Amino acid sequence: MDVSTELQSEIHLTETAKMMQPNSATTPVQIELATEERMELRKTLSPSTSREKAVEQKTKPLNTDFERRVRQLLAEGKMEAYEKAEVAVKLLDLKFEESEAIYAANECGNLYMAVSYLQQNCELCAGRFPMGKMVSMLFCVHRCCRGCAKDYFTIKIKERNIMEAVCPFCDEPDLTDDSVAAEYFNNLDIMLKNIVDSEVHELFQCKVRDRALMSDPNFRWCAACASGFIADPNRKRLVCPDCQAVTCALCKKPWEWQHDGISCEMFAQWKEANDPEYQAAGLERYLAENGIDCPKCKFKYALAKGGCMHFTCCQCKFEFCSGCGKPFLMSKKCNVSAYCEKLGLHAHHPRNCLFYLRDKEPKELQKLLEENGILYDIEPSYSQSEGCDSRKCPVMEQKELVDGIEDAICGQNIENGYAGLCRLHYVEYLVSLINKNRVDPLSIMDLNELQQELRRADKVFAEQKKTESDDAYHDRLVQLIRTEIPLAGDTT
What positions carry a catalytic annotation? Predict the structure, then answer.
């Protein structure tokens, strides 16, 4: 029946009722016929579903015991209205718990709505469960049954990072915001106490505690066993409370007595000049020791920086560029300039970051180093062929696989003149020297790259004049960039 037909029938129903109102000329038989006609019209306008009929027939009161139970709920003050008490008793007959039946009867208008309310769908296993066995996520509208919630959060807590313990459907909330994360973990702690096993809940609390400690400026990671601890800011020599390993608080290298009283730079120079094992390790060890440091929690990865520059710390889930440490942010969360709104996930890299220089030819980078009087290697160390294929690049890197992330040997073919490395990791080695010595790469940037550098910084620049040569225009842009966009310090 469409809307217009339904409206006409309702009008007819109303008019018929008015016509058949009792008066001096109306007989009891006419009144009865009018009532029957009205009931038939009501059935036509509001047909009951088969499900509603089944529920009503199953719970239809057959004796005075039903009324007694209804009145008992009213007398005990559990229900305020007789009609709602009837719904509650019918729900009890359907084997729902009393607390759930009373709550649903008070909240819903009829039995069918109350039954639907008490039989919720789990969005993970697709099963139907009473309201009391459902768990609502804290920062969104999604829900699942207690069993699915227990399994999901147990896996996240025991096998994954605590930052992944968010909604399984929409990944809310965004835990990169410290204030949001603090509120979320406080509420999640209360929720998990009644869902997961006690030992899992204790592990959750330990991981939340460790995350809070990482925000302390004196928090340090052990370079040997990856345990974290609060260090004395005035002590350069750190001792791990778990494995007793001794490391330098600044360069994070194993402590040696020769390091005492000298800077990390001077100690590194001493190692290169006097330690045969250090010399034999060559560039493979150099890239490992100058690996990736998380700018947020300071966890150190002995991995190469080549490949994808978007790195996610496994400890704190901070997303950053492995070349310069700048954070990766979505367009709406980055407020550097209005241009950011047009971008997706991006970072604001300095011009000497590997992100830009990785596409340069090794000869260009070598020329830049030579112009600044910086030495570099072109031959492999003798020990690189020991224990591995001398034709394959031996550098460790992080690789994304189908079932997760794995640290593995690069394995790409090496090229002559690249110091026993593949092209990718040799470029990384050269760029690390550029960063270490704070060399500005403006001289090897072409006109398009110079213009892009100015646009990224939202700087206004004049177009090339018709009579101006490319070299003259290049020099003019270089001078403008040096004045308006000075290169930041060391990005390593």
Answer: 308
